[in-house]
Every structure is written in C-alpha cells, then in structure tokens.
Description:
Elements: H1 2-9, H2 13-34, H3 39-44, H4 48-65
Amino acid sequence: MAEILSDKLKLTPLDYIILIVGCLIILVVSIIKEKGIHIRERLSEKNIVVRWAVYYAVFACIIILGYVSDSSGFMYAVF
C-alpha cells in the first residue's frame, strides 16, 4: 500500500513525517482550543524568556517543516 501511494504521490519518507507532524500539531491546537484555553493570552502571561523561547521554537518548526522536496519544484511554475 505504501509503495502505491509513494508512486502516485511521489512522497518521500521525510514528506510523510512532515505530514504526520503537521496533523498532530493541528490536532493538539484544536484540543487546546476546545478546552477553552487561549494560547496567545496564556503565552503573554509568561516570562519574556519563555515567550521568546516559544517564538524561536515555532520559527524553527516553520523552517524545518517548510521543507520542499527537490522533485516538486515551484508550485506555480507552470502558470
């Protein structure tokens, strides 16, 4: 089954990891919001060192998870 999906979608194992991590992040944020916790307000109450550590961690996640496969190229190149 995985070989069929890999052939059709041309995804690498790293692409699957990024996809799973992204889905887990969305799930966790959704559960937190459902419990009525406001993430931005809770973060603003924290110490400035903690806040900036979270900001840097989010930025690093965006850089790492923003990986673009070499085989895909630029998305809008054909338009």
